[in-house]
Write a structure and sequence with these properties.
The chain has 550 residues and is mainly beta. The protein is built from two helices and 36 strands. The strands form five sheets. The protein has a 15-stranded antiparallel beta sheet that branches. Strands 3, 4, 20, 21, 22, 23, 24 and 25 form an eight-stranded antiparallel beta sheet that branches. A seven-stranded antiparallel beta sheet has the order 30-31-32-33-34-35-36, with no helix packed on it. Strand 7 and strand 8 form a beta hairpin. It is elongated and about 135 Å long.
Length: 550
């Protein structure tokens, strides 16, 4: 594929395409020597919803937090003891049957206690229930001694009962059975003194004392959750809620406490979507596209799309080129652009350079614009800080370091890789001939910065700190002719006054640039010192005015 020429190239450049070998030759160009590469795109995309339990009381609408751990404790107690020699009577009639109870002696005694806990833990990776445990007890006792007369009439029959004594009790234990709860124990109905005295009966049932001896029934019941009590909520937050019954049970209380923990964070969802996305193959080749991020209003669902950008162009063998482009991002809060570049030597063949555009950090999309391929001009006398001339796309942390081809001095300090293995960018310093800014920190620039790399500058734009996934690059200014860039371990503390604290952070590599003769007004000598592993490596460059080379 041959390179396409851009309109501004046609204004001032002549281009001859080598059709047989796929090479280009350029005549001298006054404006610039640039071409427009062919640009195509492929996608990876996926989406996911947060698992777990939604926060109990919404803290910051419309956002809904999710948690992976839930604990519920429910308690209910009821105690009712009443004894009355003149317990009121009552009358009841339905479908030709009447029941009439006289006033008289009655004693009722009821005790009930329910105390249970349920804990659920969801696995972050599989999003399945990792554990579901139960624990609790249930005890209940009811006794009723009733010496009132009960007369039942259903014409032409009737019966008269004088005494009725009943007793029931229950004792159960709740334990975990797999992913469910299991109540086990015994239920007892009747007792040695239980029964009723039938004074008269024409329905065909026996009269006299009819006993109800104790009968024990085993209990074995499976449940998927414990009982929840309370019709009134008090003290509710995102992770805690207390519910209680109002009015309270006779002689006791009833409530449920719920707590949530182990939040499934936005970053957890981001990691999940990226893992799903990266497990896919790149999609169909397209001629237009964008990287994208889309959060749902509640931040419970996330869609991400990465874009693999292919820049294809013909090259002339051994000719230095700089491929540059701009990533333009649009979000709800505005738009911004990030320039990027890549420098290489031509091979004499058609070349394709691949670059992954990450989704923006907030809802929005990113497109690639202004892609162009330019012949890299040799550095002129006094030129400094050629941002966008950093070589390579796989820069090691703090390297590859200092170099010179005689025509200039170059210092490239890679920022390592992102959390997903892609280049995080680089800090660069470029000097052609001697200049008062040759060892000035303000001549530093950053290039090919990833979306995950944070660049911190002062109000004038001078670099102060650059944080990548692997390091914190801290710029230390000694004077206008000496500075250092110290690559430190990633910080764990938050920023103070706009900068990350550096105290206690281990130094990985430290670069120092100094113009030792600046005090005498000479900038023909530059010293670049690399300190790594406690060892200093000194590189010194001397400019020869006669040859115009270092």
């Amino acid at each position: 594929m041959l390179l396409k020429t851009s309109p501004w190239f046609l204004l001032g450049c002549a281009l001859t395409m080598g059709s047989l070998q796929g090479q280009t030759t350029q005549a001298d160009c006054i404006v610039d020597q640039c071409f427009r590469p062919d640009v195509t795109y492929q996608y990876r995309f996926d989406s996911h919803t947060k698992p777990g339990f939604v926060e109990l009381c919404q803290k910051a609408p419309p956002i809904l937090k999710h948690y992976l751990h839930r604990e519920v404790h429910s308690y209910k107690k009821r105690q009712d003891y009443r004894e009355n020699a003149f317990w009121p009577g009552m009358d009841y009639s339905n479908a030709g049957r009447t029941e009439s109870t006289t006033a008289g002696y009655r004693k009722v005694d009821e005790d009930y206690v329910y105390d249970a806990t349920e804990v659920v833990e969801i696995d972050k990776l599989t999003e399945l229930i990792a554990s579901h445990t139960f624990d609790g007890t249930l005890t209940q006792t009811n006794s009723d001694i009733d010496h009132r007369f009960l007369t039942v009439t259903a014409s032409p029959n009737h019966s008269v009962r004088w005494t009725n004594i009943t007793f029931t009790s229950m004792s159960q234990v709740l334990a975990t059975s797999g992913q469910q709860g299991r109540w086990t124990g015994n239920s007892i109905a009747g007792c040695a003194s239980c029964g009723r005295w039938m004074h008269e009966d024409t329905f065909g049932f026996p009269t006299g004392w009819i006993s109800d001896p104790a009968v024990v029934t085993p209990v074995d019941a499976v449940v998927t959750g414990i009982d929840i009590f309370g019709n009134q909520i008090s003290g509710c937050t995102s992770t805690a809620r207390h519910s209680q019954e109002s009015p309270a049970p006779v002689g006791g209380s009833a409530y449920t406490d719920e707590t949530l923990s182990n939040e499934y964070t936005d970053q957890d969802l981001e990691n999940k979507v990226r893992a799903l996305m990266n497990a896919q193959a790149w999609g169909t080749l397209r001629t237009a596209g964008s990287a994208m991020r889309l959060w749902s209003p509640s931040r419970e669902w996330l869609y991400l799309r990465r874009m693999l950008t292919h820049f294809t162009y013909a090259t002339t063998k051994d000719v230095p080129y700089t491929l540059s482009w701009t990533e333009l991002t649009f979000t709800a809060t505005g738009s911004y652009s990030v320039p990027r570049s890549y420098q290489f030597a031509g091979t004499g063949a058609v070349v394709t350079y691949d670059h992954i555009v990450e989704p923006p950090k907030e809802n929005g999309f990113t497109i690639v614009i202004e892609a162009k391929l330019c012949r890299t001009p040799p550095p002129g006398p006094g030129s400094v800080g050629c941002a966008g001339c950093a070589g390579g796309s796989d820069l090691a942390l703090g390297g590859p370091g200092v170099s010179s081809d005689g025509g200039g001095v170059a210092l490239t300090m890679g920022l390592g890789t992102t959390g997903f293995g892609y280049p995080a960018g680089a800090i660069v310093l470029r000097a052609g001939g001697p200049s008062p800014d040759i060892a000035n920190a303000r001549s530093l620039s950053v290039t090919s910065v990833s979306a995950d790399t944070e660049v911190i500058t002062d109000p004038s734009g001078a670099l102060l700190q650059i944080r990548s996934a692997q390091a914190l690059a801290h710029v230390e200014v000694v004077s206008g002719s000496q500075f250092s860039v110290d690559f430190l371990a990633p910080p764990t503390a938050p920023k103070v006054g706009g900068l990350y604290p550096t105290a206690g952070l281990a130094s990985i590599v430290k670069w120092t640039v100094v113009a030792p003769d600046a005090g005498q007004g000479s900038f023909d000598r530059v010293r670049v010192i690399e300190r790594r592993g406690g060892i200093d490596r000194v590189n010194e460059f001397l400019f020869e005015p006669a040859s115009g080379r270092w």
